[in-house]
Amino acid sequence: MRVITGSARGRRLQTLEGQEVRPTPERIKEAVFSIIQFQIEGRRFLDLFAGSGQMGIEALSRGAREAVFVDSRKDSVQIIRENLEKTGLGQQGRVVNMDSLAFLSQPNGKFDLAFLDPPYRTGLLEKALEMTSAVVKPGGVILCEHPADEELPAQAGDFVKRRDYRHGKILISLYRHKDVVGS
């Protein structure tokens, strides 16, 4: 796993080993960042269920102002901190070791971009999506990674599903505020 482009381009990232861990494949990461490529610079990025932190680190490498990494596992949080240090992006990253739903229920400011990739088929994604819609700015974007055979709601709060991007067995669902025109 590596940083694709930007200031930390090519840097290898560590990830946890084991069956409970499912890092976002590089082809999916590339797809996500091609979708939002012109919306990253200077923005605030939420990497929920962060794992190794690769999505938030990619956003920082591409010019995001700040990335907040949330994960409930202590070992994941340690890996995220090491990856931030290794890439030289630690000053712009905030790592939070807590349950993602608990994080969303506290005041943490508004985000421009949010990436949600919880453990598959646990029901967490639907709950997190609804709660995330309350912490993303109206001009922002919510991206969800999930199995292609799992349908997400058409709307979460004031955010509407605008498009699904299929990549084999993985789907990326894009949500924008109901008042924002376009996909």
UniProtKB/TrEMBL annotation:
GO MF annotations, alphabetized: methyltransferase activity; nucleic acid binding
GO biological process terms held by the UniProt record: rRNA methylation
A Pfam family matched in the record: Cons_hypoth95
InterPro entries: DNA_methylase_N6_adenine_CS (IPR002052), RNA_MeTrfase_RsmD (IPR004398), SAM-dependent_MTases_sf (IPR029063)
Keyword tags: Methyltransferase, Transferase
Protein name: 16S rRNA (Guanine(966)-N(2))-methyltransferase RsmD
Keyword Cell inner membrane attached: no
PANTHER family: METHYLTRANSFERASE (PTHR43542:SF1)
Listed NCBIfam families: 16S rRNA (guanine(966)-N(2))-methyltransferase RsmD
